[in-house]
Amino acid sequence: MNDTKSILFITVTFPPRLSVASLRLYNYAKLFHKNGWKVHVMTCTQKDQNITDEFDLNIFKIIDVPWKDPYAKIHKIKNKYLRKVITKFMSYVVPQLSIWLPDIRFKSWKRNAIRLANELIKKEEISHIYTTFSPPSPHLIGQKLKSNHKNIFWIAEYRDLWSFSASNNWIKKIVKNLHFQLEKRIVRESDVILAVSKGQQAMMQKRLKRKVHLLYNGCDFDSYIGLETKNDVFNIVYTGNYSKKFNDLDLFFASLKEFVNNQKNESRPIKVTFVGTPKNHLIQSKIKDYNIENHCEFLKKIPNIEVKKIQKRASLLLHFAWTDHRQKGILSGKIFEYMSAQKPILSIGFDQELSELIEPYNGKMLHKKVEIIDFLENLYHNAQPIKSTSNQASMISKQNQFRELEKIIIQ
């Protein structure tokens, strides 16, 4: 590796902020560093963000770009009802403006980042930039930097779709083709475009009419080595948030209730642990309706290493895929954590790519109550060992995903 290779990551989300997006970028940035690259990261601090000190950030040069968040003024409003109304209004209106005024919320951050990045590229002789969507601002910055520095190599990553996102509201769906003209113009000068799943890769290649490369979130099997696996409780673990619109919580809770009733004469307790999942009215009311309060517990957001310990002690790792058959390739970072833990996985919903990914790890994608109950009961009475693998051996490890990426971007 040429020691002069250097890369600048441009993202609004990076550690110490605790989020799935932060984990993806941190792990790949760390692999760049490990393989001889000089790594810079341009990011921002967001108000009230969850942070952790578990990351080694000394290996990077991190530039925290000044940003005036319009939402910060709302938080200063003393009347909580007025604050709530304005927040809801802004949360609805501002995202719609991005159709014509891309990422207006991060306007000041984008302006400051472009100025600082231009200075950094000249001073440090940056050879590559890596921008990540969402939000759009990193790609907008990438476009500007590419126009200013023709020889720089621009990697544009999509953690999810932009104009044709499955989560678009009705307004964005109406103007998606108009919005796409802007998107296409922004990423036109990028040297490489990355997608996080085969489904999204196929969609983007069709729309953009150019090669799109696949970079999975990737597994880190080795990071679970040595973690305690013993647990006297049959513990079903769910990590992160959920979608009340696109995930079938009722199917899981109905199956769980019947499963619990079927084991009432057994001595081994059954528990569902939600880690970092908002304990809001919706999920609490469902748990109450199905009369399973005594079997559910909620843990607040905790450092990733603590999450891994819980996952490794789990009897089963729970995942919710989308219920919409038309959506393909919606792969959250959490599913790669699940596979890395090498524990049984239950995904409820529909996605062929996801189903094929988890199958070698005793994973099942199911969408019928009788199938879910059978799967739970079989696992309850017959623990199933999973063939062990490693970062070196698996092609979906972050390590081997990085190696494939490096082949593409070194010219």
Tell me the structural class.
alpha/beta
**Second rung of CATH, namely the architecture of the largest domain:** 3-Layer(aba) Sandwich
* Number of continuous helical runs: 15
Number of domains: 2
What can be said about the biggest beta sheet?
7 strands, parallel
In total, how many beta strands? Answer: 13
Looking at CATH, the homologous superfamily of the largest domain is Glycogen Phosphorylase B
Task: State the gist of this model.
By secondary structure, this protein is an alpha/beta fold. It contains 15 helices and 13 strands.
Can you walk through the features of this model?
This protein has a seven-stranded parallel beta sheet, sandwiched between helices. Strands 10-9-8-11-12-13 form a six-stranded parallel beta sheet, with helices on both faces. The model has no long low-confidence stretch (mean pLDDT 88). It is built from 15 helices and 13 strands. The longest helix has 18 residues, at 80-97. 42% of the residues lie in helices and 15% in strands. It is an alpha/beta fold and 411 residues long.
